[in-house]
């Protein structure tokens, strides 16, 4: 078998060695590598294909130019060598985040006219930002946070009509905030700088945290005549016709108290009012299900809480009468398929070992119940009593991803092809990113695993069981997916979700469970097994045999494997943020969703995937 694989490797190398090679781009990258300090993680070699083998490098469809550079956490240090990366004229994505790069903003980047995504965060850059951002007319995301950039924020940023995200947090920028009236801008963070003056009205749609840690004031906090003006440092003195300071102070304090009272009253009305015009705010309503008049305590026990947007109508008695089928038993409880008398089918999760009281349970349900996203399973209703805690979800007929991957072959088992696994990965990553963006970033999933993931109507991964980890005993959390730092799930970090996502991605690539028996009582941990195989430089053995019948996917699998391994490093702050993971996975998907790929597949039908070797850091991936 080994000889056959070796022969296939040689044949494949000869076949795939023929084709375009971006010679000039390759030399530019070699010059860059030669002139900057780096870790041994980069396997760039003049004798290998830059487009097929070089870690962190992505080429266009015909492999004639390098279009993306992903060098996050690769141990780069020192200034960026001049006249190196600036020669990659087709570059669309530059990711140099989380390194130790020094010096000023690379002036040569002005030659990269196609630049769309720029990630320079968490380095040691200094000096002013470039004065003319308009040279990058396609720029969509610019993250320059956690550096030492100084000077003012260039007004030329306002010319970027495609900009969706600008993150400049934690630098030394000063001066006033320019009026960046960019309709496409969805994310802005200027916190922790030395900015002063008034926040422009066009930017007041962003949360106050985006401007914290500066000397900025909202225009709403100023009198109307000063709303768009800088206060005069030497005002003309006039005779006082107004109130003295003590009286003015009393009015201010009284006004604040009154304002708080009004806001509190408004909040209470919004929470309990059953009707309303704000359709975007998801509310809940309690429905009396008991027809017996047995007192308030009995009625309270029979209340099911439904969330707005749920078109279900049933009570506890309906659930008890429903025809139920056990779908699965997990660490947090048992899931039933309940067929109601009106032919409605729902999934009901019966929780066990809940360690929190009613108030905390209901607060968590309210947080989870308001989430609506294509890649997050909506919580439709819940029930709480001292004896029972139930959660009601939509029923997903195809079952969980775990059953698709590890269920018995035959008997209706769904086989996941490569495109399906890609869509599951993209969906789960998007879902996690949405969860992490809710409630001021305070919400995490806490228990990501294949049995908690289903397919939505478009075939993308959809997450369920959000936030349950905070309600349960920490010891119940799925061991194989648990991040090393997550010894107490009540303190789970967003980075812990990224780790669990990485394990899931490795599971999709290998077809193996996170913990699987090797023989006897020995249990193999998937992360350790993947690292050991990759270190032996025989990456083909990692991938699921069910994927080997699909042609021309080996490069994509290797790139996805790199993402998965980056997510499961032991140190939380060395893992990529989930937003970065979404971008990387979607970019791989974008590159393969082209007519070129379709034509290539038709020409190469029946070809066999080629093994690849991946170099990994000896420390970062050790477990």
TrEMBL record:
Signal sequence coordinates: 1-20
Sites where the protein binds ATP: 358
Keyword Ribosomal protein: no
Name this polypeptide is given: Putative inactive receptor kinase
SUPFAM superfamilies associated with the record: L domain-like, Protein kinase-like (PK-like)
Annotated source species: Glycine soja (Wild soybean)
InterPro entries recorded: At_inactive_RLKs, Kinase-like_dom_sf, Leu-rich_rpt, LRR_dom_sf, LRR_N_plant-typ, Prot_kinase_dom, Protein_kinase_ATP_BS, Ser-Thr/Tyr_kinase_cat_dom
Record keywords, A-Z: ATP-binding, Kinase, Leucine-rich repeat, Membrane, Nucleotide-binding, Phosphoprotein, Receptor, Repeat, Signal, Transferase, Transmembrane, Transmembrane helix
Transmembrane segments: 247-272
Gene Ontology MF: a single term: ATP binding
Domain Protein kinase, residue spans: 321-592
A Pfam match: LRR_1
Biased segments, Basic and acidic residues type: 593-604
A GO CC annotation given for this chain: membrane
Chain intervals for the UniProt region annotation (Disordered): 593-623
Compartments in which it is found: Membrane
């Amino acid at each position: 078998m080994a000889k056959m694989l070796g022969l296939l490797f040689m044949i494949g190398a000869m076949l795939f060695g023929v084709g375009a090679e971006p010679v000039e781009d390759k030399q530019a990258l070699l010059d860059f590598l030669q002139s900057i300090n780096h870790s041994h993680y980069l396997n760039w070699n003049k004798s290998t294909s830059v487009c097929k083998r070089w870690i962190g490098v992505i080429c266009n469809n015909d492999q004639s130019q390098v279009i993306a550079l992903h060098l996050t956490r690769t141990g780069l240090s020192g200034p960026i060598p001049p006249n190196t990366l600036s020669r990659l004229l087709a570059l669309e994505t530059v990711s140099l985040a989380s390194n130790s790069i020094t010096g000023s903003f690379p002036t040569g980047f002005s030659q990269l006219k196609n630049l769309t995504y720029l990630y320079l965060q968490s380095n040691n850059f200094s000096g002013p930002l470039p004065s003319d951002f308009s040279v990058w007319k396609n720029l969509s995301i610019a993250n320059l946070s956690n550096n030492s950039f100084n000077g003012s924020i260039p007004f030329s940023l306002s010319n970027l009509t495609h900009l969706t995200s600008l993150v400049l947090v934690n630098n030394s920028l000063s001066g006033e905030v320019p009026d960046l009236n960019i309709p496409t801008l969805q994310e802005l963070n200027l916190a922790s700088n030395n900015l002063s003056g008034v926040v422009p009205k066009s930017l007041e749609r962003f949360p106050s945290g985006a401007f914290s840690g500066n000397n900025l004031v909202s225009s709403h906090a100023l009198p109307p005549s000063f709303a768009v003006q800088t206060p005069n440092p030497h005002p003309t003195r006039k005779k006082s016709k107004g109130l003295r300071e003590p009286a003015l102070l009393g009015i201010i304090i009284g006004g604040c108290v009154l304002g708080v009272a009004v806001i509190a009253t408004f909040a209470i009305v919004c929470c309990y009012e059953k009707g309303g015009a704000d359709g975007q705010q998801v509310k809940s309503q309690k429905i009396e299900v008991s027809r017996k008049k047995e007192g308030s305590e009995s009625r309270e026990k029979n209340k099911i809480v439904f969330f707005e947007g749920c078109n279900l109508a049933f009570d506890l008695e309906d659930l008890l009468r429903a025809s139920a089928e056990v779908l699965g038993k997990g660490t947090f409880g048992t899931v039933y398929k309940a067929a109601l008398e009106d032919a409605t089918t729902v999934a009901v999760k019966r929780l066990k070992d809940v360690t929190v009281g009613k108030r905390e349970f209901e607060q968590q349900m309210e947080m989870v119940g308001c989430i609506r996203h294509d890649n997050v399973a909506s919580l439709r209703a819940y029930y709480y009593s001292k004896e029972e805690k139930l959660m009601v979800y939509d029923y997903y007929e195809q079952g969980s991803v775990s059953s698709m991957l590890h269920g018995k072959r035959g008997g209706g088992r769904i086989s996941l092809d490569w495109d399906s696994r890609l869509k599951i990965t993209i969906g789960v990553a998007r879902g996690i990113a949405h969860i992490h963006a809710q409630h001021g970033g305070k919400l995490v999933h806490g228990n990501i695993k294949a049995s908690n993931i289903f397919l939505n109507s478009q075939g993308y991964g959809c997450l369920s069981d959000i936030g349950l980890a905070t309600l349960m005993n920490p010891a119940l959390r799925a061991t194989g997916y648990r991040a090393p730092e997550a010894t107490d799930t009540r303190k789970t970090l967003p980075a812990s979700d990224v780790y669990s996502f990485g394990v899931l991605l490795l599971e999709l690539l290998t077809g193996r469970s996170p913990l699987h028996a090797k023989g006897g009582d020995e249990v193999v941990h998937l992360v350790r097994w993947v690292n050991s195989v990759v270190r032996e430089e025989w990456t083909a053995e990692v991938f699921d045999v069910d994927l080997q019948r699909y042609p021309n996917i080996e490069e994509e699998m290797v790139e996805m494997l790199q993402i998965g391994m980056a997510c499961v490093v032991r140190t939380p702050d060395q893992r990529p943020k989930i937003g970065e993971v979404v971008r990387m996975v979607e970019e791989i998907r974008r590159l393969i969703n082209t007519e070129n790929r379709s034509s290539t597949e038709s020409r190469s039908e029946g070809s066999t995937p080629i093994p690849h070797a991946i170099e990994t850091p000896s420390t970062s991936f050790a477990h």
